[in-house]
Structures are given as structure tokens and as C-alpha cells.
């Protein structure tokens, strides 16, 4: 392309030697110079960047320095109107008395116009544009031509055809400029190459560059760039330049560098260009971007040129094509960003506020080097959105002195990421330093996207989303900013700035990254308190949702997903790991239960609930306190306890009531409750699938077992322990709990159970005294053996090996439905309750149990906890393992070889596991005895669907009496009964007690008689009642064989006694012809007033109920008919 200049066009017509109209004095010429030239500067004339201009020059042209300016003016005067003339030089006599006339490179007139006597024209210059003195010598004075650009502009636009069709338009706010082809000049020097393709204009709007080109155009008028000036255009990239860039410039002159213009790089294949403004979010091949550049933020002043650069420095400099269209320069008022702000007091009321476009660089711990200050947030004309291009850390002041952030504050907006950055964040901050010391440990910024997986340690205080954004897809985001800052209920922080951070790590890429933000809302969320029941007390917990982590520092929560709380219910939609502080610390014991309803709307990977330690905000805290309720995946990390029901919740819409014995998993302090729905399986970035609801959450303690001891209540903690051995008991215990009713007075045992409860304080044998225990017992469904134990330890006596097993039997039966063997290891009581029956037991255990007492002052056992000790054999201490023989134990300790099923060790606390054998003190059995446990036994080894579920019995009203005395022992007891039954007898005794002062504090007639008769079991009392009643009748033991009654002969008597009661004789088989009148007579005249003496027969030896029934197996009138018990 031929190099053109402002003065290279048009005809040249003038002649030398033409005198001035009249001879001028030096003074008059000085006035002319002052009007046509700018003030002189010292030194040779040169371009602003030091380039030499082309020139005509003459030496020894004057003999007096006083005449020098006049002579030089006259020498250059013929050229002053020519295009390209830029100034003159005056050199004093001391340096050769010379004059020079300077021209832009390429515009020097023909050598034929070189004035006579001049030196050879200098044509090797490179300067284009105004000149100035080089400053090296006061003997040289450089006079730049005044109004260089105006003169050049006039020369172009006055000479060009007024109706030129080859132009493009630049729209100003109040006019449109037509920039003509003739105004084209080279921008910067020596960048263009021969043969390059000219810039094309199309539709007076599109400027298309092909290959390497550095071209500027003189604007028809100087345009002032002010602080509010915006440059707008469309940019289309068809082909990238090779090893180059595309830029548009507005400049005062045609020199690339300097502070009187600015160039904007639109596309670079050379990375970041430090001497230019790199427009961020550069355009990709085949696409068009809309550029809106706040040029006034980067440069102010008057510009004469618009320049287009497509630099292509590769091997083929014709590579590259791009188009700039619709150029517009306008002055606009600073746009304000609209934000809808909600009322703190009326949360459904919103008002539109406006954030002034006063952009401030955001610093990081006081250092503001993160921000690229050449870039600015682009606020849309409507004010509803902003665009962030390139590396920017910018803050805008919130209106009305800031916004008070609370735990319920939500920042909501729509975000579209068109080109990813290294990370993207938004902040609500008290100042413009995002990690200032005052807010250390709080998160004023929220990361929205990060290329390094949120791992940057320099932003450790920041919280972030776990859901990611899909490039080019618009998404609405609602961020609980108050909860991200960790604000509790009632805490308030005043944020004065909203900050936007789009970070690019390396300066070579600072132009990358583009995001659009719109429709901002800042408000207080309408949130209900979470309502729970804690140990029977309704509690309202502030709805402050905090992110729950997997392990310490491992974020799992999608913080922009917020739990929906509606009083007693919590609903999670999408990936959610949240927890609520309880506002108090509670204690979980073995008796603590967690009860709630759980409904599944859409199943996801995991659904869970947690009870968290104080100060802990993560799941894997070393304690088993998070419970898996439902889910699509197996918990390979074992971070949850699987409490999913046997018939797992697999159908959406299912509701299940959980009642988890959390105390069986852990014991300790709890300060928060967590709800989780984990969704790592979803392909989409938002992780919104999955929904479940927890409702009616109760944390409560199982009722303690209430006993009485001498009328005083003893609350036995509901911490259930396997007795005898783990294999003997149904386990896990939490699935087979002995049910203590709400009063604590009844214990219902279902299925196979050997279950111990430990007394809050061990009961000394010496304090137990008479050790009389009374209780009620009933059977709804029979197992094999049912009973009750009072135990010093958890070891069940082995009567088959009594020589080595020194434990005494401490269990009694209340019912058994299998053979106990010849030598039972449980003590049968005198009365065994039948299936479906009930009975009240009173047992004097001091008489029933053997080896019960220890000597006064005996040493108290230590009950050390079982401990596995490595590398300490011999020399294992008490309750330590693993021993193989007595020689591996210290002192007199012996090795307890516990076999494969025995779980407990004498004199030790804890559970023996594995195959470990422990050293113990064999003198444990001679030490002071303490009753430490009450045990309920309901043994049944029969399997029903694989489990030992048979048996349903209830024990109730258990009372221990240590000093058994009779209040009626000294009383004269007499009463009259119409019918002497046990119940009537006891009622009469109770009436007597109520009338006796000594019995004022007693009300139990059976226990009174138990004491009075010095009984061992309650059946002893009933036997004595029978004897008293028997003795009270007039005729004792009426002889049913008396001849006057039945009138039987000896043969008949023998026949009845020997054969009838065993099912034989004619009395069983005879029909109604038999004479039964005598039986009827006895029934009516004797049986109603006398006790009958039983015949001496084995079938009547254990008739405990004291009554007999006669029946016929078949009808006595029709022996053929099947009529059982036809006649009674």
C-alpha cells in the first residue's frame, strides 16, 4: 500500500523568488511567526517520539542573528500552505546560520522545488505529525506550525469531492461524521508493507481489514473525549491475524505511543499487550461481539484520528480479517445499577434503589494490585445489568449508607458466564478490602466459580457454591449472604459495598473472562423458626442455616440451595448439607431417642440426619452421630450409620416414622442438628434433583425403670446391656429394646432378651437386709423361659461347672415352658405363670440366693474397665488382656479363659471382644458384694423368619423391701368370711391394717402376711391362707366316702380312688342309668359349707387352686354322640 499523508494529495503550484508584498521588518515578521507558528523549543525539529522529519535546508543564509527568524521565515514561507509542512528551524550564526523547512515523511515536495542554494533534500526521515525541539542546544530553535491538524484537515476535506461516496460514519451524540477515504494516513511508521490490501468500507458502516494494516483516518473535526464518553461498535472476527492483534485507536496524532491517545486491543494472538488497553472477553473466530468501552475512564482530551490496526507479523502477512461496524462516540451520564431492596420490617415490600457507577478497585488485605484498572464494569443503559470483561476487582457503593446484613439476608441475581475466569465472586463488604482484619474468619465474599476447585489458600475466609455454571447458560442465583458470613440470630453487619471479582491469574490472559449479571435483589428471607421437641420441651430454633461439611474443610453443601422450613418440618430440594444450632447443648445418653417422620418425594444419593458435637460442622467427626435414612447409593465412605428400615424406602412419596436409639451409637454433647440430601450423581451443574422432608422431630430419653426401695423411688437409667453373653441376647439391642412405659413402672420384653439395667448406685448386700422383692408379672405370649435376676455382675452362673465357676445363681423363673434339666441354672419359683395369665410375686431373695452375703468391711471390688495391652506379658494387670495362662498375669491374678461366647469377665467392666482372655482377681468373690444390675430374662431360641421373636411378657411395680416387719404381729386378728377365698382373706387383712395404727404406713396385705408368716415366696402365704380357712370350718376334711353320704361299698370306693381318677372304671363309661343322686346330695348339702379332704391319689398332689371339677367325656344319654364335657 502506498504511504499517504495529509499533504500528499492535491496539486502544488507556486514559484520561488516571488518577493513579499513589501519588505518586512524583523519585528513585523516576528508577529507573523507568532501567528502562524507555536512557541519555539530548543534543538533540531523532530517528531514527538524523536523521529527525524524530511526537510529542505540552506546554510549561511544570514549574517546577523537578529535577522535569522525573518530570513528563515521568508525561506519557508512558500511551503507553509502545503500539505505535510510541519515547521521550520532557525540555527544561529555560531552553528552555521542555516534555515530548514520540515515535512512529514513522504510529503517533501519535488526536489525541483528545493530553493536555490539549498542542500540536497533530506528524505530519510520517519516523522509524521507535529514536531518539537530536541532540546539539546539553545543555538537551534524549532518552530512547529500552528494548528497542524486543522490545517491538515482543511487541506483534505476542502480539497476532496464534497459528494465522495467512499466514506464511513462515526456517530456522535448530536451529529454524524463522514470520514472519507482521502483522510487515510499511515498510523505509526514503518508498520505497513508493500502490497497490502486496502481497508474496505461497506454501507458507510462496516470497516473491513484484511492482512497486515496500520491505518488512521483524519476525523472531519476534532472530537473531545470526556470522562463520560463511551466508544461503541460491533466487532466481527473472520480470521485471526498471525502473530499479531486487532485494535482500534483514538489519537491526537498518528504516533502509536504517547499519552495523547489510546488503543484498544480487540483480539490478540500474542497474549497480553502491556502498552495497550486489552479489551477483555475477546471475540472468537466467526463470532461478533458488541463492544461498549468507557474510553473516558482511560483517556480524556481532543482526538484528530481514528486508527485501525490489524497487525499480522507471521510469515504470511496477508493472514487475518476482521470488521468493525457501527462506530459511535457518545457522552452519557454515569449509568446507575438498579437493585431491588426489601424492607427489613415488612419483608414482602420491595423498593427500587440505584447504585451509583462509582467504581473502586477492590484490595486484598490492603493490596489493590489484583485489579486491572484499565478495565471497567459496563453498566447497561437501562441500569438492570452489568457486564464484566477481563480481570476486574471492582466495588460499587450501596445506596443509603449500606445495607444491614442479618442471618436471613438473601442476595439474588441472574448470572451468565460467557467465558470462564480463574474465579468469580460477589461480595457484600463493610469496606473495599475483601479480607480485612476486622472480618477475619467471616465470609464477606462468595465464590461462584473457580478453576482450581476452591483450593486457593489466599482466600481461606471465602465460602463458595458447590454447584457450577454452564458456560453460556443464564441461571438465577439466590445466596444466603448472612449465613455465609456465619451470622447468628440477632447479629447484624452493615455492608457498604457490593463487589464483583472476576479474577484472571496471569497478566497475559487478563483480557479473558466475560460474565453478565442482571436483576439484582437484596432482601430478608421470610423464614420460620424450626420447631423441635427437646426432652419433652417445645423449642423454637432460629432459622439460621449453616453449611455442613463432609470432613473438616470438605465442602459438600450447595449453599445456594436453601432448606424450606415450615415450623416442625424441614424440606430439602437438591443437594443440601445444612445444620441448625440448637441454641443450647444437650446430652445424649444411652436412653436418648431421635424420633421423626421422614417422607421421600424424589430419591437422591443419600438422605440423612445428624446430631453434631459442639464446635463441629462436619460429618466425619469420629463419632457415630449421622444416620442414613434412604438413598440410591451405598455409603462406601462409611460416613453415615445405616438405619434404613429392613423394607427400605424405595418409592417416592413413602412416609416412614423413625425412632432411633441414638444413645446406642454414641453418648455425649450435642449442639446442632443437621439435615442432608446429597446429590453427587446428577449430571447437571445445578444439582437440583432429589427432595425429602423431615417433620415432627423429637429428641427424648427413654423412661427410666422406676423401682421402689423401702417406699423410695429409684430411677434406674434406661441403658440396656446384654446379660450372660451377646449371642444369648437379641442384638443389636436398639432393635430389641425392653419397653419401659411412660410411668417407668412396667417393663415389657418382646422376643428373646437377656437384658440388664445398671442401678445408678450399686446396692450393698448389707444395705439390702431382708432383700424381699415384689413385682407383677403377666404373659401375653409365651416364650421358653421367663424370669428376673438381681446380679453383682453380668456373668450367668454355670452350674455344669460349679467347681471353677464361682458365680452363684441370681435368676428366678416366673414361667417356663421347657424342661429346665436335672440341675437348672435358674431357680424355679413355686408358681409358674401360665400363658395368658398374670401373677404377683413376692420373693425373699436373701433366702433363695446362696452365697449372697460378704463379711462386714470386706474390700470393695474396683471394677476396672477391660483393656487390651500389647507387649506386656508376663505382667498383665487386672482386667487386662491378652493372657494365655495364669503365668502371664501379675501377682495372684489368674487368666480368665472365657471361651467363644462369654462376653464378661469377673470383677471387670466392659465387653470382652474377639478371642482375648483377661487377667482377673479370683478373690473378687470374697470381696464386698453389691447388687449392680436388675435383669429381665425372656429366653426363646425358636426362629421366626430368621429371628428369635417369640415371647411377650411384662414386669411391673418392682419393689425391694430391706426390713420386713409385720404391723399386725402383736394384734389379735379375727374376722368372719362367708366364703374363705384368698382374695376375701387378703381384703379382710387389709381392712384390719387400715384400722390398726401400727400399720399407718403400710397398705399391702400380701406383704404383711409375707412378713407375718416369715415366708420365702408368696405361695407360702397362699398355703397358709388355705390352712387357716380349712381350720375355720366346723367339719374339717369331710370324708366323701362316708357311707352316710355316698353310700358306697368298699369295692366302689377302691374303684373310684384307684381307677376313676386315672380315667377308668364304669364311672367314666357308664350312662345316665347310674345313680347320681348321692353326688347331687353331697354337692347341695356338704360342698357349700365344708372343705373336702382329697383322696390319697397322685393326680391330686399338686392341686394348687384348691378346687376340683367332675365331668363326663361323652353324653351320658347318648354314648354315640360326640359331646365333650356333656355333664358337669
What structural class results from the helix and strand content? mainly beta
Biggest sheet statistics: 7 strands, mixed
How many alpha or pi helices? 12
Estimate what percentage of residues fall within beta strands: 25-35%
The count of strands amounts to 66
The overall pLDDT, averaged over residues, is: 85
How many angstroms does the end-to-end distance come to? 137 Å
List segments where confidence is low: pLDDT < 50 over at least 5 consecutive residues.
1-21, 437-441, 1124-1128
Our Rg estimate from Cα atoms comes to 54 Å
Describe the overall structure.
The chain is built from twelve helices and 66 strands. The strands form 14 sheets. Strands 8, 9, 11, 12, 14, 18 and 20 form a seven-stranded mixed β-sheet that branches. The longest helix is centred in the C-terminal third of the chain and has 15 residues, at 1018-1032. It is rod-shaped. The chain starts with 25 loop residues before the first helix and ends in a 43-residue tail after the last helix.
Amino acid at each position: 500500500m502506498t504511504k499517504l499523508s495529509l499533504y500528499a494529495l492535491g496539486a502544488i503550484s507556486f514559484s520561488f523568488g516571488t518577493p513579499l508584498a513589501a519588505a518586512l521588518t524583523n519585528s513585523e515578521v516576528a508577529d507573523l511567526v507568532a501567528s502562524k507558528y507555536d512557541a519555539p523549543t530548543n534543538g533540531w525539529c523532530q517528531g514527538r517520539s524523536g523521529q527525524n522529519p524530511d526537510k529542505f535546508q540552506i546554510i549561511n543564509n544570514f549574517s546577523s542573528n537578529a535577522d535569522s527568524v525573518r530570513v528563515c521565515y521568508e525561506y519557508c514561507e512558500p511551503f507553509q500552505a502545503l500539505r505535510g509542512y510541519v515547521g521550520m528551524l532557525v540555527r544561529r550564526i555560531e552553528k552555521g546560520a542555516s534555515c530548514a523547512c520540515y515535512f512529514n515523511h513522504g510529503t517533501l515536495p519535488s526536489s525541483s522545488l528545493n530553493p536555490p542554494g539549498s542542500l540536497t533534500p533530506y528524505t530519510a526521515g520517519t516523522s509524521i505529525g507535529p514536531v518539537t525541539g530536541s532540546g539539546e542546544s539553545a543555538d537551534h530553535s524549532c518552530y512547529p506550525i500552528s494548528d497542524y491538524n486543522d490545517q491538515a484537515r482543511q487541506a483534505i476535506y476542502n480539497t476532496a469531492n464534497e459528494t465522495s461516496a467512499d466514506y464511513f460514519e462515526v456517530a456522535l451524540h448530536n451529529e454524524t461524521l463522514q470520514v472519507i477515504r482521502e483522510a487515510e494516513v499511515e498510523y505509526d511508521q514503518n508498520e505497513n508493507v508493500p502490497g497490502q490490501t486496502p481497508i474496505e468500507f461497506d454501507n458507510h458502516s462496516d470497516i473491513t481489514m484484511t492482512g497486515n494494516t496500520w491505518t488512521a483516518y483524519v476525523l472531519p473535526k476534532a472530537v473531545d473525549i470526556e470522562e463520560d464518553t463511551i466508544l461503541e461498535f460491533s466487532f466481527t472476527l473472520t480470521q485471526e491475524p498471525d502473530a499479531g492483534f486487532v485494535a482500534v485507536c483514538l489519537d491526537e496524532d498518528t504516533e502509536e505511543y504517547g499519552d495523547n491517545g489510546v488503543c484498544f486491543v480487540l483480539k490478540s494472538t500474542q497474549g497480553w499487550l502491556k502498552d495497550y488497553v486489552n479489551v477483555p472477553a475477546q471475540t472468537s473466530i466467526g463470532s461478533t461481539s458488541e463492544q461498549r468501552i468507557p474510553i473516558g475512564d482511560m483517556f480524556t482530551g481532543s482526538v484528530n484520528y481514528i486508527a485501525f490496526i490489524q497487525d499480522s507479523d507471521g510469515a504470511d502477512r496477508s493472514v487475518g480479517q476482521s470488521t468493525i461496524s457501527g462506530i459511535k462516540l457518545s457522552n452519557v451520564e454515569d449509568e446507575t445499577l438498579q437493585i431491588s431492596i426489601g424492607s427489613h420490617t415488612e419483608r414482602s415490600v420491595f423498593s427500587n434503589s440505584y447504585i451509583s457507577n462509582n467504581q473502586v478497585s477492590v484490595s486484598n488485605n490492603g493490596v489493590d494490585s489484583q485489579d486491572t484498572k484499565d478495565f471497567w464494569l459496563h453498566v447497561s443503559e437501562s441500569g438492570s445489568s452489568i457486564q464484566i470483561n477481563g480481570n476486574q476487582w471492582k466495588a460499587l457503593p450501596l445506596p443509603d449508607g449500606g445495607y444491614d446484613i442479618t442471618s436471613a439476608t438473601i442476595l439474588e441475581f441472574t448470572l451468565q458466564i460467557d467465558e470462564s475466569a480463574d474465579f468469580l465472586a460477589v461480595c457484600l463488604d463493610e469496606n473495599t478490602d475483601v479480607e480485612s482484619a476486622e472480618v477475619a474468619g467471616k465470609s464477606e465474599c462468595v465464590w461462584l466459580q473457580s478453576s482450581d476447585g476452591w483450593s486457593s489458600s489466599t482466600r481461606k475466609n471465602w465460602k463458595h457454591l458447590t454447584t457450577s455454571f454452564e458456560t453460556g447458560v443464564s441461571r438465577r442465583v439466590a445466596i444466603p449472604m448472612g449465613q455465609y458470613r456465619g451470622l447468628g440470630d440477632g447479629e447484624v453487619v452493615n455492608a457498604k459495598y457490593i463487589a464483583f471479582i472476576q479474577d484472571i491469574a496471569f497478566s497475559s490472559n487478563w483480557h479473558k473472562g466475560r460474565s453478565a449479571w442482571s436483576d439484582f435483589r437484596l432482601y430478608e428471607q421470610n423464614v420460620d423458626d424450626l420447631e423441635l421437641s427437646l426432652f419433652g420441651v417445645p423449642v423454637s430454633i432460629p432459622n439460621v442455616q449453616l453449611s455442613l461439611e463432609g470432613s473438616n474443610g470438605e465442602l459438600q453443601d450447595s449453599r445456594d440451595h436453601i432448606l424450606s422450613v415450615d415450623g416442625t418440618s424441614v424440606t430439602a430440594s437438591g443437594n443440601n448439607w445444612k445444620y441448625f444450632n440448637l441454641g443450647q447443648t444437650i446430652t445424649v445418653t444411652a436412653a436418648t431417642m431421635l424420633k421423626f417422620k421422614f417422607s421421600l418425594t424424589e430419591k437422591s444419593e443419600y438422605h440423612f440426619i445428624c446430631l453434631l458435637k459442639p464446635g463441629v460442622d462436619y460429618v466425619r467427626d469420629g463419632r457415630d452421630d449421622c444416620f442414613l435414612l434412604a438413598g440410591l447409593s451405598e455409603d462406601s465412605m462409611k460416613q453415615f450409620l445405616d438405619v434404613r428400615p429392613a423394607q427400605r424406602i424405595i418409592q417416592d412419596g413413602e412416609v416412614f416414622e423413625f425412632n432411633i436409639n441414638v444413645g446406642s451409637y454414641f453418648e455425649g454433647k450435642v449442639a446442632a442438628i443437621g439435615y442432608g440430601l446429597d446429590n453427587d450423581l446428577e449430571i447437571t451443574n445445578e444439582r437440583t434433583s432429589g427432595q425429602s422432608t423431615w417433620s415432627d422431630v423429637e429428641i427424648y430419653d427413654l423412661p427410666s425403670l422406676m423401682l421402689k426401695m423401702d417406699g423410695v423411688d429409684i430411677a434406674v437409667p434406661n441403658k440396656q446391656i446384654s446379660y450372660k453373653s451377646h449371642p444369648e441376647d437379641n442384638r443389636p439391642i436398639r432393635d430389641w429394646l425392653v419397653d419401659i412405659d411412660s410411668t417407668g413402672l412396667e417393663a415389657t420384653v418382646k422376643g428373646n432378651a437377656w437384658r440388664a439395667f445398671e442401678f445408678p448406685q450399686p446396692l450393698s448386700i448389707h444395705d439390702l437386709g431382708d432383700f424381699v422383692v415384689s413385682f407383677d408379672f403377666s404373659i401375653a405370649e409365651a416364650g421358653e423361659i421367663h424370669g428376673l435376676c438381681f446380679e453383682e455382675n453380668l456373668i450367668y452362673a454355670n452350674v455344669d461347672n460349679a467347681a471353677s465357676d464361682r458365680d452363684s445363681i441370681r435368676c428366678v423363673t416366673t414361667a417356663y415352658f421347657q424342661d429346665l434339666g436335672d440341675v437348672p441354672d435358674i431357680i424355679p419359683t413355686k408358681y409358674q405363670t401360665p400363658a395368658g395369665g398374670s401373677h404377683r410375686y413376692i420373693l425373699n431373695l436373701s433366702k433363695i440366693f446362696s452365697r449372697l452375703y460378704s463379711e462386714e468391711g470386706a474390700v470393695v471390688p474396683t471394677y476396672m474397665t477391660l483393656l487390651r495391652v500389647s507387649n506386656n506379658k508376663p505382667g498383665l494387670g487386672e482386667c487386662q488382656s491378652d493372657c494365655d495362662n495364669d503365668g502371664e498375669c501379675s501377682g495372684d491374678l489368674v487368666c480368665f479363659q472365657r471361651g467363644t461366647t462369654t462376653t464378661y469377665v469377673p470383677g471387670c467392666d466392659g465387653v470382652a471382644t474377639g478371642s482375648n482372655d483377661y487377667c482377673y482377681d479370683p478373690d473378687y468373690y470374697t470381696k464386698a458384694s453389691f447388687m449392680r444390675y436388675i435383669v429381665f430374662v425372656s429366653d426363646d431360641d425358636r426362629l421366626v423368619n430368621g429371628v428369635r421373636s417369640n415371647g411377650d411378657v411384662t414386669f411391673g411395680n418392682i419393689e425391694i423391701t430391706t426390713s420386713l416387719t409385720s404391723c399386725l404381729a402383736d394384734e389379735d386378728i379375727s374376722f368372719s368370711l362367708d366364703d374363705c377365698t384368698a382374695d376375701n382373706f387378703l381384703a379382710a387383712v387389709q381392712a384390719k391394717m387400715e384400722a390398726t395404727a401400727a400399720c399407718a404406713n403400710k397398705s399391702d396385705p400380701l406383704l404383711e402376711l409375707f412378713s407375718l408368716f416369715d415366708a420365702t415366696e408368696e405361695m407360702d402365704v397362699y398355703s397358709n391362707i388355705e390352712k387357716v380357712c380349712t381350720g375355720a370350718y366346723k367339719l374339717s376334711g369331710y370324708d366323701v366316702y362316708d357311707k352316710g353320704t355316698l353310700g358306697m361299698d368298699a369295692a366302689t370306693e377302691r374303684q373310684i380312688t384307684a381307677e376313676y381318677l386315672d380315667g377308668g372304671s364304669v364311672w367314666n363309661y357308664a350312662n345316665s342309668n347310674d345313680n347320681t343322686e348321692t353326688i347331687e346330695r353331697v354337692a347341695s348339702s356338704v360342698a357349700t359349707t365344708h372343705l373336702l379332704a382329697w383322696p390319697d391319689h397322685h393326680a391330686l398332689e399338686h392341686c394348687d387352686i384348691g378346687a376340683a371339677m367332675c365331668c363326663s367325656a361323652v353324653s351320658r344319654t347318648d354314648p354315640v354322640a360326640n359331646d365333650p364335657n356333656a355333664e358337669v
